[in-house]
Structures are given as structure tokens and as C-alpha cells.
Write a structure and sequence with these properties.
The protein is mainly α. Helix content is 33%, strand content 7%. About 12% of the residues have low confidence.
């Protein structure tokens, strides 16, 4: 009797089984980071923020993650990176806390959470860290085409150079981006510098020299302090033209007719000549 042969295995299907992604998963044994789907598939975070959070969670402790350090690492630029960091702060994946060192210097400590802080019980903050409560400013929403009720009156023509100077600061440093309201509020302070004979280039250089390395959270307050604290004194008043005129160039007194002898003499006002005044004094 012939032994029965097992049936041949079915031929493997070729090609994808259907539309969509196909995962090829290999186990990592070193240099890997565990990222939760709550971050990787977050419904509200931008792709930039998700990628930046993944990068930050993969870094060793103590690695600088400031805006300038990240901008030097990635091509997106400081403005997009700053916006992504604000997204992560708003959704509890990141916290930036001010800390004063024993030397008195204030630095920013960045804390990265692999689970959103808002979804877990708050952990006790380190003893050396002082949490800073941030209150989001209320920004009025103005319909398109409608006048802004909080917008100040347009700047007078004399303040136009000051407005242009303040509006152009962001082209040199994106941290000095000002709202229209802040520009009109600071314009009189800049105009005071210009009225005192300070060139616009010198005012701009004063406002942008020795800027802090950390983010400037309130650029309008920062600039207002510099404009008030570093305001130069007015130029000295020019001397009267007659006090500096060379001798002999002064205009002579007009001719007057003497009330005593009716002779002509020069004097600032009518009266008696020198001889008549002398005779009268002798009499």
C-alpha cells in the first residue's frame, strides 16, 4: 500500500494584500526611544510639533534645546521652531521654567514629558526649580474688514520714522516682532530720541545691542525699558548769535536827535547826547 503524501503548502500570495501601509518591524536592542501613540497620532499637534517632541525625547539629559540650538540643527528656522515649542507647552509635553543660579544668573530649564502632563497627576517640582504660571493673553478677535476697537489712532506724520524703525526690528531679530498696537505705543519714545538729534541707525543699534540669549517673551516691555533707561539728554542750546559775533560786526545804534542841542548822536533810544548829559550833571 502506498504511503500518503502530505499536501503541498499553498503558494504565498505575491504583492500587497490591499491598500494602505505595510509595516516591516524589527526589534531594537540599542539606541531607541519609546514614543506613545498619544504623541505620534495626536489629533491637534502639527507634524512639526510631533517631530520636534520625538527629537527632544530622544536626546540625552543636559542637551541644549533652546530655539537657537534647535534652529542650528534643523532647517525650519526660529519662528517655526518657536511655534512648535509653544504647541508642546500648551498640550503638556514640554515645560520651560525660569531658575536663578547661586551666581544670580537666570536660566531657562526645559522639562520634557513622555506622557502629556495634563493627562497625569502633577509630579513634584525639583527643589531648585520655581514654577512660573503663564497666563495666555486675551487677544480680541476682529471680523475681517471691521475696525479694531482697541487699535490706537494712527501715528501722526512726525512719528512715521519711529514707526518704520520699530516695525523693521523683526527683520534683524525675529524675537523683536511687535504688534501694531505695540508699535504705535512705543513710537513717541523713539520719536523723543530722534528729536534729540540721535540718528535712526544709532537708535536701532541701541535697541539691538547685547540682546539676551534666551527668548524675549515680552519684546514691547523690553524695548520700552531700553528707550526710557538709555534716553540721552537734549542737545545744549545754541548761544545767541550776538554773543559769538566778531567785534565790529554788530549793527550800530540808530541815529537820534539830542533833546538839548539838537545834534545827531547814536543811541538805542531818544534822549540827550553825552555832552548835554555831562553839562546837566555839572549844573
Amino acid at each position: 500500500m502506498t504511503a500518503q503524501q502530505p499536501s503541498a503548502p499553498p503558494r504565498a500570495r505575491s504583492g500587497p494584500s490591499g491598500p494602505g501601509i505595510v509595516h516591516v518591524t524589527e526589534r531594537h536592542h540599542e539606541r531607541f526611544t519609546v514614543v506613545g501613540n498619544h504623541l505620534a497620532q495626536h489629533p491637534e499637534l502639527s507634524l512639526m510639533a510631533i517631530g520636534l517632541a520625538t527629537h527632544i525625547q530622544s536626546l540625552p539629559k543636559g542637551t541644549p534645546v533652546g530655539i537657537k540650538a534647535l534652529a542650528a540643527r534643523f532647517p525650519e528656522g526660529e519662528i517655526r521652531i518657536a511655534a512648535a515649542l509653544r504647541e508642546l507647552e500648551a498640550h503638556g509635553y514640554l515645560a520651560r521654567i525660569k531658575e536663578r543660579l547661586p551666581s544670580g544668573r537666570v536660566v531657562t530649564r526645559t522639562i520634557s514629558y513622555n506622557r502629556p502632563r495634563l493627562a497625569t497627576s502633577p509630579a513634584a517640582a525639583p527643589a531648585s526649580v520655581t514654577p512660573v504660571t503663564r497666563v495666555a493673553p486675551v487677544v480680541p478677535v476682529t471680523p475681517v474688514g471691521a475696525p479694531d476697537a482697541l487699535d490706537p489712532k494712527p501715528a501722526p506724520p512726525s512719528h512715521r520714522p519711529a514707526v518704520d524703525l520699530l516695525s523693521g526690528l523683526r527683520a534683524h531679530d525675529s524675537r523683536l516682532l511687535l504688534t501694531k498696537r505695540d508699535v504705535h505705543r512705543l513710537a513717541p519714545a523713539v520719536a523723543a530720541w530722534l528729536e534729540r538729534g540721535v540718528p535712526a541707525s544709532a537708535v536701532q543699534r541701541t535697541l539691538m545691542t547685547d540682546l539676551p540669549q534666551e527668548p524675549i517673551r515680552h519684546p514691547a516691555r523690553f524695548l520700552a525699558h531700553r528707550l526710557a533707561a538709555l534716553l540721552p539728554p537734549p542737545l545744549p542750546t545754541a548761544p545767541h548769535p550776538q554773543s559769538t559775533a566778531p567785534r565790529g560786526s554788530l549793527r550800530p545804534d540808530p541815529l537820534q536827535t539830542c533833546d538839548g542841542c539838537e545834534r545827531a548822536f547814536r543811541a538805542p533810544s531818544p534822549g540827550r547826547c553825552r555832552d548835554c548829559r555831562s553839562c546837566g550833571a555839572a549844573a
